[in-house]
């Protein structure tokens, strides 16, 4: 497997390598620090399986860089990995051809889960907890607030939804308990209910069902 990581920060490129090797221990990880370098690497790498692309690196000019790369490799999934993840940015990127959008604030385990989903042919969108809300954008759009939660996730209580969202981000029961100020045994009880309600046999299946459905944790409506 060949994976291209296009990001102008070497620390980010190097930091992603251990997680990408979880996808394939023998993966050939290619580097690019600008759009020009990324395009050159795409042109000379016919066996690419996946591209991770930073929207803010030199030469990108918004989504133009993504479109240029997709034009050259229409059948290779390109995933945006960005430190800036408003709802509008995410959906615009997917409409422009991205196979997913991963905020740089996610855990390594969550990123690996998301990339496995993308490699299986699905599209990954981050949970709503990762969407930024800049002052110039105000609150979430009315459409997002009024969105109907799709079945079977409409069966989940608010707390169960919060725990599932944490699960998708790759957190352990102990980490979820700390984050939500609950006892670990309480997390286990809630998870059993989550599995039953969404038809999952175990933790891994629950994550996959949530990712494949595009489910995101609905915002609290005041």
Automatic annotation (TrEMBL):
GO molecular function terms noted in the UniProt entry: DNA binding
Keyword Phosphoprotein: yes
GO terms (BP aspect): phosphorelay signal transduction system; regulation of DNA-templated transcription
Keyword annotations: DNA-binding, Phosphoprotein
Boundaries of every Response regulatory domain copy: 2-119
Domain (HTH luxR-type) ranges: 149-214
Modification sites for 4-aspartylphosphate: 54
Top-level lineage group: Bacteria
CDD domains given in the database record: LuxR_C_like (cd06170), REC_NarL-like (cd17535)
Protein name per UniProt: DNA-binding response regulator
């Amino acid at each position: 497997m060949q994976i291209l990581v296009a990001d102008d920060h070497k620390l980010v490129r190097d930091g992603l390598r251990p997680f990408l090797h979880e996808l394939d221990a023998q993966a050939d990880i290619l580097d690019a620090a600008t759009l020009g370098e990324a395009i050159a690497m795409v042109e000379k790498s016919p066996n690419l399986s996946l591209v991770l692309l930073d929207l803010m690196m030199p030469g990108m000019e918004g989504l133009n860089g993504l479109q240029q790369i997709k034009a050259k490799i229409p059948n290779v999934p390109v995933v945006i990995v960005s430190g800036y993840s408003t709802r509008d940015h995410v959906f615009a990127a997917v409409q422009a051809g991205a196979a997913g959008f991963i905020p740089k604030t996610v855990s390594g385990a969550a990123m690996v889960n998301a990339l496995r989903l993308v490699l299986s042919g699905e599209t990954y969108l981050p949970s709503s907890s990762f969407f930024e809300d800049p002052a110039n954008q105000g609150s979430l759009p009315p459409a997002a607030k009024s969105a109907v939660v799709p079945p079977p996730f409409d069966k989940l209580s608010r707390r169960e939804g919060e725990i599932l969202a944490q699960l998708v981000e790759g957190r352990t029961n102990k980490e979820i308990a700390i984050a939500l100020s609950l006892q670990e045994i309480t997390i286990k009880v809630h998870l059993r209910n989550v599995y039953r309600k969404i038809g999952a046999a175990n933790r891994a299946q629950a994550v996959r069902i949530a990712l494949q459905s595009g489910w995101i944790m609905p915002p609290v409506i005041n």
